[in-house]
Structures are given as structure tokens and as C-alpha cells.
Amino acid sequence: MRTAYSVETVRTAERELMDRLPDGVLMQRAAAGLAAACADLLRRRGRVYGARVVLLVGSGDNGGDALYAGARLARRGAGVTAVLLAAGRAHEGGLAALSGAGGRVVEHPSDTSAPFDVLAAADLVVDGITGIGGRGGLRPDAVPLARAVHESDAVVVAVDLPSGVEADSGEVVGEALRADVTLTFGTYKPAHLIDPAREYAGAVGLVDIGLGAVLPPVAELEALQHADVARLLPVPTGESDKYRRGVVGVVAGSARYPGAAVLAVAGALHGGAGAVRYVGPAGDAVIARFPETLVHAGPPAKAGRVQAWVVGPGLGEEPGVRDALASDVPVLVDADGLRGLNAKVVRARKAPTLLTPHAGEAAALLEVPREEVESARLTAVRELAARYGATVLLKGSTTLVADPDTALPVRVNPTGTPWLATAGSGDVLSGLTGSLLAAGLGARDAGSVGAYLHGLAARSAARGAPVSAEDVGAALRVAWRDVSEEA
Ligand SMILES: NC(=O)C1=CN([C@@H]2O[C@H](COP(=O)(O)OP(=O)(O)OC[C@H]3O[C@@H](n4cnc5c(N)ncnc54)[C@H](O)[C@@H]3O)[C@@H](O)[C@H]2O)[C@@H](O)CC1
Ligand SMILES: [K+]
């Protein structure tokens, strides 16, 4: 499990740890880890001795980390130049260490082109403009420097966070530094796991500064890894028959959109339930593709017992949502089922409800513009879970799963791929996730395991080429096997 903590929690833990340690120890630990990683990167491209390293240094401790790491690299023979974005406010101890080690300093802005000249010639740039203390994106002065960095061939290493991203939300306001590698300290922050910031961070490495001992046991965010998912996968025992493994009911598709029913059923057949019951007008299309499906014209209330319902994909104006919500089993509501969804009805349910909107549907439910959801996904998913008293899976480049119990960490799916942005892939996800619900997983686990397998399946089906939703459905078995083999 990869976990992330908010800035406030990190600051509290850091204070506690600092009280127990001599001054400056934490920063030295951070700088040592940072310098070691930079030296590794330089060695991979040549060697440390004689390499040209540029430090972008802001006014806070993030710049201090960069300066101390720069001093360590200078002592190993690198040519290190610090570009001070706030001359006069740069970390004093760090500056002294760098000068003592033979590093140079230039100021920005300045009358000369010196900062841009050193950047153009750099082998490695260390971004220490802002870390967890940064607010409101890169300042105007920093923007031309960031552009020069992006145009250079240097490998870019961000200190703690790529400067300009919002640590707690993963938002990027205006421009931010794009890093190849980010070294973070003590724990991941939400921005390392959530888009759009995650993309700016590149490969993220964690430097242990001893913070683990003072962080609270429950994180604000968590990302499942293979082993976590493997532990959650429902596995039939010798006692299982198809009914004990769970029956998932799929209320999807319409005369106009029969394909959505087929894709949702394809997902459901790969989610571990023992049987899939399809309810709706697209039974013929479903049977033609998946003869093992139990089909029923509806309504859901008359279709027979299921252990979970999936309602919504391609449903159009077809009824069925109300029936499913009136049942006493877990219900996953997706797509058309989310339109006009009544929060009171959802809140009153005794069994779990799992809503699976994409950003547009989430925006409609929250009555805000879509861009607001896209730029602040974490806030949106938490707000929806609270408002509906339901588990919410917000689909997107990083899918998030929030539980109505706010004490539980929001889950971030780490397996996403841009290839998943393809018509019908959401239908496969809802079928798959509903099947996991029917097989006995809780809503939060079903949502996060469903998103994980779905992302893996898309990656294995795509391998660098476009995929269809049907390909994703067909690759779910491979994803399941990959995960369980690694356990
Ligand atoms: N607190 C600790 O125990 C440790 C902190 N460390 C480092 O310290 C960082 C946090 O240091 P700080 O709290 O000093 O904060 P930062 O260095 O992240 O940034 C705060 C400074 O930047 C300015 N600033 C804010 N937004 C800005 C923007 N958009 N553009 C330009 N300047 C902006 C502020 O006025 C302030 O001077 C961490 O990210 C990490 O790199 C590490 O040394 C490890 C230990
Ligand atoms: K930074």
C-alpha cells in the first residue's frame, strides 16, 4: 500500500520529530537522499565529476534542501550553480554550504542572461523553488525559467514536489515545473498520486527521514498495490456453487444502446460473481455474445434474487434505477442512472451504494462546472460521498474512491492509462465492480479493486496501441491472473 498525507499532517509530524532531534538533522537527511539520487542519475548519463548542475532556489526550506544537496554534489566534483529566485531570502546555511563547496550563485531576475545560459548548458536541474509551502502556482518571474528548463536536455529533479503544484489537491494553477524524477521526504503527498500534479512529478522516489514513526496510522490517501489487490480478490472455495459465489444483476442498455448492456455483462462475467443476471430490453444482444447470462426483460424487482445490482450504463430513459435502489442489496449506479439521482433516497438505503461518475456526471451531481471537478478531483469525490452518504468512484486519469466514512483514506487508483478514455470502457468497469460487490467485497474495496483490474487490463490490452472497451473486457482475466500470481 502506498499512502499519502496532507501538508498539515506532515507539518505536525515534522514538528514532533524535530523536537526530538538536533537542529537541521531532517534537512540534512533530505539533502543526503536528494544528492544520492542526483548522483545516480548523473552516473547513468556519464559521471558526477565535471557534470553541470543547476539549482533553482526559492525562499523556503525547499530551496535549502536543494542548496545542501548541491553542496554535496559540488564536493564530488560537479560544477554547481544556484539560481536564486528570491535573493536575500534564500536559506542561509544552505548558501554558505554551497559557497564553501565551491558552488556559484546567480540571481534571477537579473540584467544578464546568466540564469538562462547556465540552464541551457545543464546536465541536471534541481527544482527547489517551492515544496509543501508553495501556494498558487509558479510566480510570473519563475515561468520563463521553467520554460527554459523544459527546453533544455537536462534531467529535471524536483525537490519534494514539482514547484507550482498544489500539494494537497493535486491541482495545477497556471504553470508548474515538469520533472523527470521527484524525490519526496518522509511520505508521499496527495499531489504525487493525483492528476494533474502526478503527471508533473515524473517517477517519484521516497527518501526516509524518519517521519514514519510519528505519522498517524491512518493516511489521508492510499493507493493499492498488486499484493493488496490480491488479498481482496474473491476466490471460490470447494464449497462454492454459483449462487454462493454471488449473482450480480445488470440493469443496462436500451433499444438505442444495446452495446452498453453487452459491455457491462462482459465486465460482470470477469468480476468473480458466480452468475450474471441481465435485466432489460437488450437480452438478445447479450445472449448472442454471452450465452451464459441469465436474461430477464424486467423490471428488476421481478427478476429474481441477486447479491448486487449494477444500474445505468446505456439505460437511456428506461426505468429500473428506482427498483434497484429500493432493494436491500448493494447497488452500483453509473452513467444514465446518475441523472437526477435523489440524494435522500440514496442516503436512506441500508445496503451500500456505490456511485461511479466521470467528471461530467460528478459536476452535474454537484451542480458545478466540469472544470471545477477536473481541477480539484479530491475535493469533488469527498463532497459527493458526503452529500450522498455513498461510496463514490470518480473516474478519470486518476480514479479516486471515497467512502462516506470520512475517517477512511480516499483510495487512488495507480493503474490508469490514457488508453482507457475510450467509449464503453466505463460500462465494463461498472459490470466488473458490481460483480465484485456481488461476490462479497465492500463498496470501497469493490470500487478500488475494480478500477485497479480495469486499468491493468487496459494496459495489457493496449501495449502502446488503441484499445476498444471489448478488448479491455477480454483482458480482465489476464489482469486478474497477473495480480494473483504476484501474491
Ligand atoms: N519541515 C521539515 O521538517 C522539512 C522540510 N523539508 C523541506 O522544506 C519544504 C517546506 O519548506 P517551507 O515550509 O519553507 O516551504 P517551501 O520552501 O515549500 O516554500 C515556502 C516559501 O516559498 C514562498 N512561496 C509560496 N508560494 C510561492 C510561489 N507560488 N512561488 C514562489 N514562492 C512561493 C513562501 O513565501 C515561502 O517563503 C519541504 O517541501 C521540503 O522540501 C525537508 O528539508 C525535510 C524536513
Ligand atoms: K520543488
TrEMBL record:
CDD domains: YXKO-related (cd01171). Binds 1 potassium ion per subunit. GO terms for molecular function: ADP-dependent NAD(P)H-hydrate dehydratase activity; ATP binding; metal ion binding; NAD(P)HX epimerase activity. GO terms for biological process: metabolite repair; nicotinamide nucleotide metabolic process. It catalyses: (6R)-NADPHX = (6S)-NADPHX; (6S)-NADHX + ADP = AMP + phosphate + NADH + H(+); (6R)-NADHX = (6S)-NADHX; (6S)-NADPHX + ADP = AMP + phosphate + NADPH + H(+). The keyword Lipid metabolism does not apply. Catalyzes the epimerization of the S- and R-forms of NAD(P)HX, a damaged form of NAD(P)H that is a result of enzymatic or heat-dependent hydration. This is a prerequisite for the S-specific NAD(P)H-hydrate dehydratase to allow the repair of both epimers of NAD(P)HX. Catalyzes the dehydration of the S-form of NAD(P)HX at the expense of ADP, which is converted to AMP. Together with NAD(P)HX epimerase, which catalyzes the epimerization of the S- and R-forms, the enzyme allows the repair of both epimers of NAD(P)HX, a damaged form of NAD(P)H that is a result of enzymatic or heat-dependent hydration. Homotetramer. This is Bifunctional NAD(P)H-hydrate repair enzyme. It comes from Streptomyces niveus (Streptomyces spheroides). The gene is nnrE.
